[in-house]
Amino acid sequence: MSRLLIVSNRLPITLSQKEGRLEVARSAGGLATGLAGPHERGDGLWIGWPGDTGDLSAAKRADVAARLAEMRAVPVWLGADEAKRFYEGFCNSVLWPVFHYLLDQLPIHMQGWASYERANRRFADVVAEHHRPGDIVWVHDYQLMLVPQYLRERVPDARIGYFLHIPFPSSEVFRTLPFREKILEGLLGADLIGFHTPSYLRHFASTLLRVLGISPEGDRVRVGAREVRLDAFPMGIDAERFSTLADQPGVVAEAESLRAGADGCAVILGVDRLDYTKGITRRLLSFEELIKRYPQLRERVRLIQVAVPSRTDVQAYKGFRRELEGLVGRLNGALGTPRWVPINYVYRNVSDEELVALYRAADVMVVTPVRDGMNLVAKEFVAARPDEDGVLVLSEFAGAAAELREALLVNPFAIDQTAETYARALALPQEERRARMRSLRRRVFSFDVDWWARSYLDALEEATAAPAFQPESRPEELDLALGRMRDAKRLVLLLDYDGTLVPYAPLPELASPDAALLELLGGLAKRPGTTVHVVSGRPRETLERWLGTLPIGLHAEHGLWSRAAGVSEWIARGDAPVEWRDRMRGIFEQFAVHTPGTLVEEKTGSIAWHYRMADPEYGVQQASELRLHLAALLRQSPFEVLVGEKVIEVRLRGVSKGAIVRELPSDALVVALGDDRIDEELFAALPESGIAVHVGPAPSRAPLRLASVLEARRLLEALLRRAETASRLG
Ligand code: ADQ
């Protein structure tokens, strides 16, 4: 079985100093408990930051590392200042608010990116040091988004999974981040990227398109020669543990005593980390509204709000705490009576038993974040109700709302409506409460944390099981082809230009041939028995200007025009009737007007509509519209539709790069090199004896593949030399 290396910002073990002695204890929390199972089952490691150990001597560190090793945990040491800038500065002050759509919480100057990069580099280095072939690496959360890429650089064939525990925002929000491209590239180092919900996945996919121009196909994205899978895996909890705990006599007694202490009041419960994303302010205001609207509830209902101290050194959290405590005071003063404190606010960590007793004692649980990746508290509440009672009020903006449909769903921004939902929850008949709770429990127990970890790891296993796509043929295969070319009495080379002989330039006019290329083509043309053709989509004038003096065949506009070696005249393979051309132009211009950023290009034998600069999603939509329209229109015409890379072209039927092949001598060995989708036509037209060579990482029907223009030129250069083998090409 493969070893599992879990990588998260914090280790599931907390270090603390007590009377000069270092204590090592297990830490709680969703992620830590969730992954404890997979960590214990395999013989893997857990790699992470052990917490602020500040002034430890080297000897003490070694001692700690040894004690952690017994628990199969590996520390990533970060200096205290560095950790502060990385974690508090960048992760919690920049990434956290942006990913939760709270741009008003952002500092004007987003600082700490360099620390983020350095810390991620540190993590990747430690993982690389411990990595053994065959290991599975599972990286967690927003603190470590660059680790997949950095690790891939160090261990190219590592099997890497990544899971994001917080929401992935809409691209409109994500792109406010100054280092947005780097973050996406960092994530794309993984083989599988997991999210809590399909809607986070959708946002991620559209962000890839809008920020990096990469468009995912279904659940996969091609990144160079690699394939990255995307999927949703809603995280669950250890439902069995919560349910069992809730039935323990001590917990049942504590729940009863809590209810007794409520003096006959119904209990509404909120439990959260003290975080501005959890919607506590609006929750309190909705509670105030409830009491105002239903005065009969005075002295009949109580809100218990438990808040766990969290990120207490981050400025925004300090401010939020002050604001919240002020509000609790104001509301208790305004609503309370000498016999009744409406809001019972608890600011501390509570034990598991206390927590579960609270869940059990509640009539209504209010989980109303303004934005939350999943929210495990909602699921814990359900699991802690073996009595099948209690009502869950859940925000639509928590990931959990995608699954827990039997909860009463609310929009927490609508304070009045939320207050009405509280009232409804308090009055819900027992039969309906039970029906809803039973259904919720089935979900929470079926899709628990074990299911989550297993389904993620199965998907990762599958994503990394197939051997990686090889962007380059093996040297033996290339040698064989090279041998056949050398032995051929007549050799015909059909060479695409852009992307095959020269790399793509930012502007088409800038891709002129360099001296080495001109020399290479000239040399090949002089080689005994060899004929060279350049077969391009470019217009005649350009080919003539760049390559016109060489003794080679030139083919412009994908084979519409041909000029034989040593001849200055071009011959056309067809003629476009004028009335059709005008009609096509009219349609294309219409689309250009209605799709900002697009343009119409007219060549002699074709008209093209380019949408590379359009809004990427709208551009694709309009392109498919245009395609459908044209397909219907052109059925009985001399034209056909050609779909290229961000371009739709209408050209004369029968004109294609492949048409050239039919005019070649039948006894020649024909070798074609190309990189583009349109070159596939050329490959398809080759005689059976022919050799198709694809250049670049994209998929192709060609049996031989070269990684880049550089390799393509090397292959051609090798033809000019005698007995050199492809294994020595590089
Ligand atoms: P969190 O924002 O921490 O997690 P959540 O999923 O609710 O949010 O987990 C909180 C955990 O803290 C729960 O296990 C809960 O029992 C515990 N807890 C809450 N109050 C406590 C208290 N007073 N004392 C002790 N423990 C307490 C992030 C994302 C979430 C996502 C999780 C997991 O923000 O959206 O669900 O990761 O992916």
Percentage of helical residues? 40-55%
Mean pLDDT: 92
Tally of individual helices: 24
Report the oligomer: single chain
The beta-strand count equals 28
Strand content: 15-25%
Domain unit count: 4
Strand order of the largest sheet: 5-4-1-6-7-8-10-9
What does this structure look like?
The protein is an alpha/beta fold and 730 residues long. It has four domains: 4-232, 3-Layer(aba) Sandwich (Rossmann fold), CATH 3.40.50.2000; 239-446, Glycogen Phosphorylase B (Rossmann fold, 3-Layer(aba) Sandwich); 475-574 and 655-729, Rossmann fold (3-Layer(aba) Sandwich), CATH 3.40.50; 578-652, Trehalose-6-phosphate phosphatase related protein, domain 2 (Alpha-Beta Plaits), CATH 3.30.70. It contains 24 helices and 28 strands. β9 and β10 (226-232) form a beta hairpin. α10 (249-261) packs across α13, α11 packs parallel to α12 and α19 (515-526) runs parallel beside α24 (709-720). The chain binds adenosine-5'-diphosphate-glucose.
